[in-house]
Design brief:
It contains 7 helices and 10 strands. It is an alpha/beta fold and 252 residues long. Helix 1 crosses helix 7 and helix 2 packs across helix 6. The longest helix has 17 residues.
């Protein structure tokens, strides 16, 4: 497993990620990162977002299922999928299964190595963080969204007036969950000099559909503000995929 690599299998022609921004989830609290990516994929389909490849990595548990975004279009869902928005440098990766037991660090290293080898310019990592360490001022604050990063990616967050992840919350998270996502991936990306921005949301386990929607909106705001990576013709309605209809024991 220590020599594990990731291999991309394109759905049609070659896939060139060089210079691109890769949006991806970290499998963390309440699976909010994956929920947010689901919302992004479903919502950006109207702008032409397309499945361009599937990625194989033996460090992840195997998953296969029916199309989570359409009941009319036959398409398999697999462990790692790669989407691209035409005429932009934006790629979105969906991860549908966690790393195998004891392989979180190895997967983070493999993912960072693969993205660097592909020439990806930067990562936008989406995830939830446990909200149990919040103080009174954070509980009463205007937003549960937070960011962590450096460089031009961070400058955009500052210009947007976003709240950075507080040092005490970051320190407590790392003390308790240092070996769990997103921290191994962030460390591996920094080690390789890969610019990375963490967009996160403070959450508790439960019905986290709205947390996923809010985190997706957060990511879109950054993508549209940062160097005009994404230009939309008017507001983009955020859509929940059809696969969410029966989750959390209810039909929506």
């Amino acid at each position: 497993l220590q020599s594990s690599t990731m291999q991309l299998f394109p759905t049609s022609g070659p896939v060139d990620l060089k210079g691109g921004t890769l949006v991806l989830p970290a499998v963390a609290a309440a699976n909010v990162g994956e929920l947010a990516v689901d919302v992004l994929v479903c919502s950006l389909a109207s702008a032409g977002l397309t499945l361009v490849g599937r990625i194989e990595c033996d460090l992840l548990l195997a998953v296969v299922g029916s199309n989570p975004y359409s009941e009319q279009k036959p398409q398999l869902a697999t462990t790692l999928e790669l989407y691209h928005l035409p005429e932009t440098s934006i790629f979105i990766m969906q991860q549908r299964a966690p790393a195998a037991k004891g392989c979180q660090g190895l997967f983070a290293e493999a993912l960072a190595a693969w993205t660097a080898a592909q020439g990806v310019a930067r990562l936008l990592v989406l995830c939830g963080l446990e909200d149990e360490a919040q103080k009174d001022e954070q509980l009463l604050g205007p937003s549960k969204n937070r960011w962590l990063g450096q460089g031009s990616e961070a400058l955009t967050c500052v210009q947007l007036g976003w709240i950075p992840l507080e040092h005490d919350l970051e320190a407590e998270e790392k003390q308790v969950h240092n070996l769990l996502p997103p921290w191994p991936l962030l460390a591996a990306a920094i080690e390789r000099g890969l610019p990375t921005l963490l967009c996160t949301r403070l959450v508790s386990e439960g019905d986290n559909q709205q947390d996923g929607v809010q985190l997706a909106r957060y990511a879109l705001e950054w993508l549209t503000a940062d160097s005009k990576q994404l230009e939309l013709r008017g507001p983009l309605p955020l859509c929940m995929p059809c696969s969410w209809r029966a989750v959390y024991g209810k039909v929506t």
